[in-house]
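Training component of the fellowship. As part of building independent skills, the fellow (R.M.) carried out the full modelling exercise for a liganded target. The chosen ligand was heme C. The inputs are recorded below so that the supervisory panel can assess the work.
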Amino acid sequence: MQKSKLSKQLSAALLLAFLSTVPFLLAARGEGSTQAETQKTIDPAAWGSNHVGKPTPEYVTGDECLFCHRNDIGPTWQKNPHALTVRSRENALDLQSTIKAQPTLRAIAPQVEFFLGSRRHIRFLKQEGYGRFAILNLRAERGSAGKIEKWIDLEKPSWDKEKFANRCAGCHATAVDPANKTFSAFSLDCYSCHGAVDLDHTKDTSLVLLSKKRRREYQVITSLCAQCHIRIGASRSTGLPYPNNFVAGDNLFQDFAVDFSKADDAGLNAGDRHVLRNVRDLALYGADSPTCLSCHDVHAASSLKHRRLPRTRICSDCHEAEGPLKTLKPFTVHSKLCEY
Ligand code: HEC
Ligand code: HEC
Ligand code: HEC
Ligand code: HEC
Ligand code: HEC
Ligand code: HEC
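Fellow's submitted model of the complex:
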């Protein structure tokens, strides 16, 4: 369905912008060729539509979804990092007692109402009016056992009222209203990935994104995961580091500018690099697989199925290019945007 629209919507200006940022060296992709070859690219913005300038859609909330999906999705959802990325203090008693026990934080600890981050890095939040958080400058690092092992900038705790709205909300909260940068729910609701779900899907599952019938929609899937997992992009319309009113199903690249050449930057950690490479292969180079879902089971929070795939360039972001796949290149995930 998208192919016919492709030529019509191909915007010359956009294409030029991309041509100037993309390195056309196949050699740089590590395919073993030393000769510079032209990498064919397509216009990532050519298919579909977006919600820039449109109202934020009404959506069915996770509580409603989980009423029916309590047995299939409910049990794992409570432990999913997407659900846990922002937690109220009632749901994070371990972290709450840790900050209370920290002498330097005795005065400020009672103000902390929410925790941001789940697996390794934790930030501290409090409500700042409707749909807004203030964020504390200091951060904590968890060790493998989940205990906080290191504090950064502990000395002078202070609240920033603007940062969360300007730099974090789009990827750590749900349905951010672009006009005032308020979120409709903290943490990530089903809406973030499944979009505005039609309740008639109970009779026809092809009406809901990411159903078994719709897992081959590689462009849609890539856009919807990339809305948060590309941490080096910016919205053209707002200038913010997260997308403007993205609704799952949209084409991310119509408004979100990404420098794909960073996928060849060995300085980028393998966590972010394999994402960028995968998105570039699909959105810019026109591949149709693998998608994020070929390797990741989001609700099971597992990547075990990735082991079955044929060995291609993306494997060497994490494994040695040759030899047994048991050997991993160690990597640490950092992000300037997420401040860790
Ligand atoms: C609205 C933003 C958002 C969207 C959309 C999103 N993610 Fe995430 N994802 C996050 C954040 C934030 C974290 C880290 C949560 C934390 O630890 O605090 C995360 C963590 C992860 C992790 C690591 C944790 C784990 O479960 O193993 C994987 C893998 C992942 N996401 C894959 C995906 C895939 C695949 C998609 C698309 C189907 C997707 N994400 C869509 C924001 C998002
Ligand atoms: C473009 C989307 C995006 C924006 C904007 C963003 N984040 Fe993130 N953040 C993510 C994703 C995706 C992950 C998970 C990455 C991974 O695990 O590889 C993440 C992970 C984190 C984590 C680590 C979770 C863990 O325990 O591993 C913290 C803490 C965090 N972000 C804080 C912030 C803060 C603070 C801001 C604003 C200053 C911010 N983020 C802005 C997408 C974003
Ligand atoms: C971070 C993205 C993301 C979020 C948030 C999310 N899902 Fe999903 N969901 C997926 C993906 C991707 C699949 C496809 C299978 C998989 O990877 O687990 C899926 C599959 C499903 C399925 C089909 C499961 C099956 O048996 O095939 C249901 C039902 C579902 N999700 C419900 C929910 C509900 C309810 C919520 C909110 C409580 C939710 N999802 C939140 C990404 C997400
Ligand atoms: C009134 C009950 C009900 C509500 C509310 C509901 N669902 Fe469903 N959902 C179903 C039924 C019934 C099916 C079809 C049977 C099945 O596969 O579970 C289904 C199927 C699905 C599927 C496809 C599963 C597959 O096998 O491919 C997804 C994804 C999904 N729902 C997500 C959601 C999300 C996200 C929400 C909230 C926005 C939601 N559902 C709300 C009852 C509900
Ligand atoms: C070829 C398989 C493959 C593809 C395609 C793939 N991933 Fe991954 N990804 C992995 C594996 C394997 C890991 C490591 C999991 C682990 O550490 O247990 C991983 C790790 C991650 C992490 C966690 C990084 C960290 O440690 O903080 C995130 C987030 C992630 N992937 C998101 C994505 C997204 C989003 C896409 C699609 C754009 C994607 N991945 C595509 C295989 C893949
Ligand atoms: C983002 C990093 C990442 C990427 C990309 C990645 N892997 Fe892995 N791989 C891992 C990690 C981490 C493990 C160990 C834990 C696990 O299996 O999830 C692993 C384990 C494996 C194993 C099991 C090795 C053993 O015997 O213990 C195989 C096989 C494998 N990967 C194959 C692949 C193939 C094939 C690709 C490319 C299609 C690939 N991997 C891409 C991170 C990655």
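The panel noted the following from the submitted structure. The radius of gyration is 21 Å. Residues 31 and 236 are 33 Å apart (CA to CA).
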